């Protein structure tokens, strides 16, 4: 059954018909050593169907090939004794120890980057083995200033705030109305450090996914004419419709989003060049200072001095983190590493000129940092890892 499921998921992925959940499942199956042989067979079958020139058609694919094979075996013992050279790239890809690299290259050739959980093809990375991927976790600050570490809190009632019961249920924080809100509003703040993310169900039932190094401040019970929350960092929202009580999200520097019922992502990290709001469904009004725009699905508002609209936007790339992936579509090295540094709680330092590399594709957020470093080595990016500081040389 696992082999049949792997085959189906692989075919869906190659046809670019996979859902985010199916792609996450495929990544998990490819990471299972028990399925090495059927995975190798699937990848080999795909290689045979592709014209050889397709495997090196894209510059970054050819560059990765050069890096892999320059550092690896030059051929079999029989080849070396006879002086024969492998006739084609395909013969190189089928050499033992390189099938996992072949998977990367083939999937790159159709516009994706997928690194399964495989041993590094070149050398060892002992320091990186202690750096694990991020996980579920956050800190909840109640109205009285007390703090609850959600990583270690047990399921059930955590507190009663502003007429709501604050509940933790299988990795999600939610608020249940216990009484009609009255008196002074009780505000709570949920924050995630680097290497953590968490999900929140607001008092009105709206869903929030909070990315690493982010925070959201909100009332324990909504009252009045509008529902207002404040966000720093990055969050994904699915808003419960209520035309009589519009939902508003305030970000830094006067950024404000007004919605009725919609799905959107907001990114306000201070180290990003601009704050962005990306709409996946519904409608969204974005304001910054005296400027205001209305977004339609597939559009992104960019606040960088002036407020502008970008379209079309790869919304799966923007919100991929919620489904357990890093998705890149032409990202440069600094953008690539900023996202990784938040999730793996790693500091990044550049020495000298920043390498001009472009990243396209997909990485699972469950990969260990050692596997992330494989990507840098495949792209011939020189680095040194000192503790949890990555130095790009």
Automatic annotation (TrEMBL):
Gene3D superfamilies: 2.60.120.1440, 3.55.50.30
Molecular function (Gene Ontology), one example: sigma factor antagonist activity
Residue intervals passing through the bilayer: 98-115
Domain named Protein FecR C-terminal: residues: 326-392
Keyword Transmembrane attached: yes
The keyword Ribosomal protein appears for this protein: no
One matching Pfam family: FecR_C
Alphabetical UniProt keywords: Membrane, Transmembrane, Transmembrane helix
Boundaries of every FecR protein domain copy: 189-283
Protein name, as recorded: FecR domain-containing protein
Organism: Candidatus Pseudobacter hemicellulosilyticus
């Amino acid at each position: 059954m696992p082999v049949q499921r792997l085959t189906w998921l692989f075919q869906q992925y190659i046809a670019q018909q996979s859902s985010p959940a199916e792609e996450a499942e495929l990544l998990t199956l490819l990471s299972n050593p028990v399925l090495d042989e059927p995975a190798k067979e699937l990848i080999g079958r795909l290689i045979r169907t592709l014209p050889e020139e397709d495997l090196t058609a894209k510059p970054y694919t050819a560059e990765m090939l050069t890096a892999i094979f320059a550092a690896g075996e030059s051929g079999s013992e029989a080849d070396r004794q006879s002086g024969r050279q492998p006739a084609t790239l395909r013969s190189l890809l089928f050499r033992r120890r390189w099938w996992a690299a072949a998977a990367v290259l083939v999937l790159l050739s159709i516009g994706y980057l997928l690194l399964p959980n495989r041993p590094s093809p070149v050398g060892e990375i002992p320091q990186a083995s202690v750096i694990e991927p991020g996980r579920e976790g956050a800190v909840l600050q109640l109205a009285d200033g007390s703090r609850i570490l959600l990583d270690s809190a047990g399921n059930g009632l955590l507190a009663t705030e502003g007429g709501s019961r604050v509940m933790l249920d299988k990795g999600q924080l939610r608020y249940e109305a216990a009484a009609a809100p009255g008196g002074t509003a009780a505000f709570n703040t949920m924050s995630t450090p680097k290497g953590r993310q968490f999900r929140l169900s607001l008092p009105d039932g709206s869903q929030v996914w909070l990315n690493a190094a982010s925070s959201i401040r909100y009332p324990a019970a909504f009252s009045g004419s509008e529902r207002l929350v404040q966000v720093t960092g990055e969050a994904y929202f699915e808003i419960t419709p209520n035309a009589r009580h519009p939902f508003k999200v305030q970000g830094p520097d006067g950024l404000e989003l007004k919605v009725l019922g919609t799905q959107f992502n907001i990114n306000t990290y201070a180290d990003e060049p601009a704050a962005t709001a990306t709409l996946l469904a519904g409608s969204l009004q974005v304001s910054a200072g005296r400027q205001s725009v209305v977004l339609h699905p597939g559009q992104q508002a960019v606040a960088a001095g002036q407020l502008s609209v970008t379209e079309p936007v790869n919304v799966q790339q923007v919100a991929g983190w919620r489904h357990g992936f890093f998705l890149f579509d032409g990202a440069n090295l600094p953008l690539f590493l900023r996202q990784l540094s938040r999730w793996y709680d790693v500091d990044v330092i550049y020495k000298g000129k920043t390498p001009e590399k472009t990243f396209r594709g997909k990485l699972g957020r469950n990969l260990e940092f050692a596997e992330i470093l494989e990507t840098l080595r495949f792209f011939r990016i020189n680095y040194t890892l000192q503790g949890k500081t990555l130095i790009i040389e």
